[in-house]
Specification:
Blueprint: H1 3-27, H2 40-48, H3 55-59, H4 65-79, H5 85-93, H6 98-104, H7 121-142, E1 144-148, E2 162-167, E3 188-189, E4 194-195, E5 232-236, E6 242-244, E7 249-250, E8 263-270, E9 275-279, E10 282-285, E11 288-289, E12 299-306, H8 312-321, E13 336-343, H9 344-350, E14 356-361, E15 386-390, E16 397-399, H10 405-415, E17 420-423, E18 426-429, E19 432-433, E20 436-438, E21 443-447, H11 457-460, E22 463-464, E23 468-480, E24 490-491, E25 498-499, H12 510-534
Antiparallel strand pairs: 1-2, 2-23, 3-4, 5-8, 5-23, 6-7, 8-21, 9-10, 9-15, 10-11, 12-13, 12-14, 16-20, 17-18, 18-19, 21-22, 23-24, 23-25
Helix pairs in contact: 1-6, 4-5
């Protein structure tokens, strides 16, 4: 639904609320009309049930309100003496319509000075858990979210098994769009291995299903910085069509809402308005080679031939001395070794080793066609050589031709909500012949530093701004062998409590953090003892 439709829906809910509670308001000494005034009725109801006014904010926060609204239903029933477990269950099962029974049928009396603390330890435990979930959901949704690196696409900068804190306040928190979903999980509920949200997955019905109409329009709160070139960014994969959320089974007819698409982390090598080109694996922006920050290290694949037939273990030993470890063992043959990922610096040092006969880079030649963006016969591009192309920028206009429409068709159609068709040499947008288009939002080009082991923009094109999720800022834990089972875990102590970005070598803040925590703990104990003696 758009904002107008949501506003109408909101007004209908206010009428439903007023009709179901106005007598309860009167019994609490309020006026009947107060039950019908939007927002104000919530403030008054919170006074009636003796709860703080700021709960109103929580009632309107998506996902959080799925917990808070049922809680208010239950608290309203309790304020009128209906405080059994059955009453609470009826409030929730009837979606609040149990209050209609209390309003029109039951003979209830308002309890002004009721006991707010739950009567049983179980009730107190449930209340504590609920509000802990609410607090964690707010932090998780609007401020910071944990994220674990699942692949080696940013190897050397971020490693598999790095546990990150992703800031949502840098680029601005994006409000949830999927209104009915489990809190603090993404697209899958752990253990149950089932979808965590209600949404019609059928691609053709994505705009017509009543369930999908409960989606909120895109809204992003202000941040304090823009996405800049070479930032490491977490975003929702634009072309996510995974039918099975636990296995890689793409299906083009399967559709996910934006905020439930798979989270990826890549480096933004091109921002809106840039003209980008990839030459021999290296990115060029506006004709100049992109210079990566100090902690970034590009990696490519190489074939290495040794001067004599060495045992695989010996070849591995040589390579590991030069910090060439990612994917070792792949494609090894007698006297030769294929390296899926190695930095230019490591290869330069390795060439001087007396056992090495030759090192050959594995690169696709210009014009060697490959299944890359935009997947059009007019573009003979591959992962090592593609472009030049202009990255769309909000408010700027591109001239459309039968030759370049393949570059922008997905952005204009799927990401900006237009119907784009070509008829011979004619381009039609929403049925109207056109030769230009003005973009509504910024777009970005995301790539992995591990150039031959990264599914990124080279395969699915531009990343829209509304898919931007956040900025990784901190590594709070790092485990080598994370994907190999807990028995093989090894902590990378030099990476724990380090920043993601920065100049020079990483510095761990683990020891200072532990000192501060211990210092605060002992100070707190000392203060309590002193207070006890003083009493």
């Amino acid at each position: 639904m758009n904002w107008t439709e949501w506003f109408v829906f909101f007004l209908i809910i206010q009428v439903v609320h007023g009709l179901g509670t106005w007598k309860l308001y009167v019994k609490a000494g309020r006026q009947a009309w107060e039950a019908f005034i939007p927002v104000y009725n919530a403030v008054v109801l919170l006074k009636i049930i003796s709860r703080p006014w700021w709960w109103v904010i929580l009632l309107f926060l998506p996902i959080v309100n799925l917990i808070m609204i049922p809680s208010v239903w239950v608290e309203t029933a309790r304020a009128y003496g209906k405080d059994t477990k059955l009453d609470a269950l009826l409030c929730i099962v009837t979606l609040g319509f149990y209050l209609y029974y209390l309003n029109y049928v039951a003979d209830v009396t308002y309890i002004e000075d009721r006991q707010l603390k739950p009567k049983t330890s179980t009730g107190e435990w449930i209340t504590s858990i609920l509000f802990a979930v609410v607090a964690a959901t707010i932090v998780h949704t609007y401020f910071f979210q944990p994220f674990v690196i699942p692949s080696s696409s940013l190897e050397k900068s971020l490693l598999v098994g790095d546990f990150l804190i992703v800031s949502k306040i840098h680029y601005g928190p994006r409000a949830p769009m999927t209104t009915i979903a489990a809190p603090m999980v993404h697209d899958t509920i752990p253990v149950l291995k089932t979808k965590s949200y209600l949404f019609s997955d059928n691609y053709e019905k994505r705009n017509t299903s009543w369930l999908n109409k409960l989606q909120l329009p895109y809204l992003r709160l202000p941040g304090f910085e823009d996405v800049e070139r070479n930032d490491i960014v977490v975003f929702n994969q634009p072309a996510d069509t995974l039918l099975d959320m636990n296995k890689f089974k793409p299906n083009r007819n399967y559709y996910k809402p934006i905020d439930k698409k798979t989270n990826l982390v890549k480096r933004c090598v091109g921002v809106a308005g840039d003209t980008l080109e990839v030459k021999n694996g290296y990115v060029f922006i506006n004709g100049k080679q992109n210079k990566l920050p100090p902690r970034a290290h590009l990696q490519f694949s190489y074939d290495i031939v040794f001067k004599r037939n060495l045992q695989p273990s010996r070849m591995l030993s040589i390579l590991e001395k030069y910090d060439i470890t990612d994917g070792l063992g792949y494609g090894s043959t007698e006297g030769a070794f294929r390296i899926p990922a190695a930095t230019d610096e490591a290869i330069a040092r390795l060439k001087a080793h007396p056992e090495v006969a030759s090192i050959t880079p594995i690169r696709r030649a210009p014009g060697e066609s490959e299944e890359t963006f935009p997947r059009d016969p007019n573009y003979n591009w591959n992962i090592d050589n593609l472009g030049p192309m202009w990255i769309p920028k909000a408010g700027e206009t591109v001239n459309l031709t039968p030759e370049n429409i393949a570059l922008y068709k997905r952005a204009i159609g799927e990401y900006e909500g237009n119907d784009v068709k070509t008829r011979g040499n004619q381009i039609l947008i929403n049925g109207v012949p056109t030769t230009s288009y003005t973009f509504k939002q910024d777009y970005y080009w995301m790539m992995g530093d591990n150039r031959h082991n990264s599914i990124d923009s080279r395969f699915w094109g531009f990343v829209p701004y509304n898919h931007i999720f956040g900025k990784p800022v901190f590594i709070w834990m790092s485990i080598d062998g994370f994907t190999e089972g807990i028995k093989n875990w090894r902590f990378r102590w030099d990476r724990i409590f380090t920043t993601v970005s920065g100049k020079g070598e990483r510095t761990s803040y683990l020891i200072p953090f532990l000192i501060v925590v211990l210092g605060f703990t002992f100070y707190n104990r000392w203060r309590k003892k002193k207070k006890t003696k003083g009493a």
